[in-house]
Amino acid sequence: MGIYIPTTMADHWLKLLICVIALSSTKVNVRASEMVNITLLSNAVEKGAVCLDGSPAGYHYAKGYGDGANSWMIYLPGGGWCGRKQSCIDRVKYSPMLSSTKNITQENFGAILSPNKTSNPDFYNWNRVFIRYCDGSSFMGDVKKVDPETNLHKRGSRIFTSVIDELLSKGLKDAKNVMLTGNSAGGLATILNCDRFRALVPNANMVKCVSDSGFFIHAKNLPNAAGRERTFSRVVHFHGISKFLPKSCTSRMKPGLCFFPENLVAHIKTPLFLLNSDFDKFQIQVNLKPHPVDNPGWVNCTRNITTCTPPQLQIIKDFRNTFLETLKGVGNNPSRGLFINSCYIHDFLYLMGRYNSPDSPKLHNKTIAQAIGDWYFNRSSVRLIDTKIDYPLDCKIGSGNFV
Asked: Which residues form the signal peptide (predicted)?
């Protein structure tokens, strides 16, 4: 015998069920991120477009739709560099995610690659592409010969051009709006490849580049300047990059110095947006290394700013001052965009909490997402630099409006 439910109660439960289903659907439609399968580059081995270990180049592609169907975003992730045989061997051995496409199946698309209209309103329905970073050269190397002893392949440039070529056949050739972007080593790659990328998509109405935490400075007046120059010089030499660097730079200085954006940016013609902290955590922790005898406890200081001695903190402040002074040399190109905050952070675009959330870093009441959108679509000029705060901010939990 069934249970009798009065009509009014039945209506109530039916309405409740409909609400639950509707809310479930809404949740799916506004997901903050999505897992996107890898696509291995067609004929990658024949093209020579392979990772350090010889595995084929790969990328993750989420197809655009609606008014974003003819707009494309190409994302170049970070992951440092290797500039010597042993460091590249170690990269293959200990960092397979940065040297191979073997065993990689999916990538989580969040923040600037997010499909969520609320958190990524300007780009959520674009064609979004994440190119695997597996060459250790910021997508710039091209050495034809393979080391028979180590099987190391140095083909970053071929990876970049071959993936773009394949994407052209998937609709990129008909794109109206295009953005090249990336973080850290990928942010540097964005700067280095910006004009080159523009030439690969000549039919697009608007092509712009956004570099996140890719403005690595030489800082000749700060500790370890020789070490910073040596690092980039080794990468340029080992990966055969010199031939791809602009002659406007290599005619004036050594090729290794032309890997520093400060020596390139003024000559870039394509609109470029620089997103960075003037207290860049990676550059301070890794690139800025005072002699340990002079600075005992420096490592602990850079891991926890509250433990820094006054002299150590002054070195960090000197980095900021040098960063801002270096930034002045990038030229006054009106197409340039800037968002330079004081967070003790490296990388912003791939984490929603930093890119666009209630607690995201803001300058002049704009989140990074708003600033990039306004600049890209020419809604307003965006040249925001935090010149008021001269102390590294802890922005991990949320920092509100800085200035």
From this structure: 1-32
